[in-house]
Amino acid sequence: MADILTAADIAELRREWIVDEIDERPEWGSGGAKASATAAIGAASVALTGLGAGTIKRGTPFTLLNGTTPNRYTATADATITATAATVYVSPLVVAAVAVNDPARVEPYYRSVFNRVFHRLLFSDVEVEDFARRAEERWGARIHEATDPRRMRYRAIGALAIAAKLESTDYESAVIQLESQDGGRGHLERLARKQLEYENDVAQKTTGHSYGITTR
What we know:
This protein has 216 residues and is an alpha+beta fold. The chain has helices spanning 7-18, 113-118, 125-145, 149-167, 169-178, 185-203, and strands at 22-23, 34-35, 45-49, 55-56, 61-66, 69-75, 79-80, 86-91, 104-106, 109-110.
């Protein structure tokens, strides 16, 4: 049986509707980033090479390995990569002298509480495709009668994904660890309301006004 979703569909679903995404920051290249010049203690920037292409975004956390000691920095401004090299302004100011070829390692961006705690995706691509099949089985007629079938399908998939999150003990554990103020209760309640909103949208055959899950 042919898949319902394309790779682009799955990527959009992960980013905007399921909220289960790990951004490996491809602009940093394939793992060979390193210092291209020395930087003294107290310097405001470090020069890096071995990067990919694009822009290192302001706020990106990364480490520079000084001997065996990793020192953590955050980019304080966007840095354009030119020919795999960029000068990155950092906070804090350089805390240990940087030598040429000191390795630089970027931290992936973990989009949801689950990603941040477990450093992996909650759902596989196969599971996302299964949500799509179940959405067709349950709401197929309503999806195809909608003025925007694609967005309606995404809402239906989002509802099923939220249900799976709420049933997952691992997801609950992640929420409790990161949303400790009320034991994660408020986060889970917001997620349940979003599930109901999506299910109501699908049942009413309307494209409505909702454009993705706003909770993590």
